[in-house]
Amino acid sequence: MTRSPHVAVITNLSPNHLDWHRGIDEYTAAKRRLLDFQGANDFAVLNGDNPATSDLCGRGRTKYFGMHTVEHGIIDGLLPISDIRIPGWYNVENVMAAMTAVRGTVSDEAILEAVRNFVGVEHRNQWVAEVDGVHYYNNSIGSSPARTVATLHAHVGKVLLIAGGRDKKVPFDEMAKQLPEHVKLLLLIGEAANQIEIEARKVPNCPPIVQCEGLVEAVAQAHNLAVPGDTVLLSPACTAYDQYLNFEERGRHFVELVGALHRSVGGN
């Protein structure tokens, strides 16, 4: 890169893509490159609650979003958190980042209308269907352990989690620590299935684990083992490249499989 955008936003930083970068310092430097060519008239928007991004600043104006902007449940004196329709604190942070980037450029009324009408996008904790009283969610973009952990926290109660694929050389140990509290059943697929299982079994009260040949078997097993009121979540914590072209293809396959279940049993 030899240029930076006039408005640069870094939502957060956590270990990722370590199959490509030589370490977390190199990965952080690559993210930091977004800011390196900014000038005095440019604007950086950074997460004040994320330790790695709160240590960064732009070359011009810098503004940090985060909990310090929330008072009585209202973000920056404008938007009630309760008006955000997509679940999960990471989505609250995404809204904060977007608001910070455009406030003063567009009207407050436009910001409020956009947030109140936004219900999410494909592959990002996307509700797919209810089948036999079980809700299915597609978070195929969850290709790192940190993303999967964030999505687990967005759901109330324990989920049946479908995870696995090709790892990014990012450890699974921190994700494994979250499994007893957030996962009822762990269904593993892909090249990293054994790695995830090894880390999961090190944790006290590890949930039951089922290894599956692929997504077809995982969805079938989830359907057989889930009970009304359960949630089945595809959030792989890995890339899709061992079996798919990309995370979109993986997510659409999941949606197709759930759709076939829906049609076969007459779901809602």
From TrEMBL:
SUPFAM superfamilies: MurD-like peptide ligases, catalytic domain, MurD-like peptide ligases, peptide-binding domain. Coiled coil: none annotated. Residues 4-101 form the Mur ligase central domain. Pfam families: Mur_ligase_C (PF02875), Mur_ligase_M (PF08245). It is found in: Cytoplasm. Residues 123-238 form the Mur ligase C-terminal domain. Gene3D superfamilies: Mur ligase, C-terminal domain (3.90.190.20), Mur-like, catalytic domain (3.40.1190.10). Keywords: ATP-binding, Cell shape, Cell wall biogenesis/degradation, Cytoplasm, Ligase, Nucleotide-binding, Peptidoglycan synthesis. Its EC number is 6.3.2.9. It comes from the Bacteria. It is an enzyme of class 6 (ligase). The keyword ATP-binding applies. It catalyses: UDP-N-acetyl-alpha-D-muramoyl-L-alanine + D-glutamate + ATP = UDP-N-acetyl-alpha-D-muramoyl-L-alanyl-D-glutamate + ADP + phosphate + H(+). Pathway: Cell wall biogenesis; peptidoglycan biosynthesis. One of its GO terms (molecular function) is UDP-N-acetylmuramoylalanine-D-glutamate ligase activity. Cell wall formation. Catalyzes the addition of glutamate to the nucleotide precursor UDP-N-acetylmuramoyl-L-alanine (UMA). Belongs to the MurCDEF family. This is UDP-N-acetylmuramoylalanine--D-glutamate ligase.
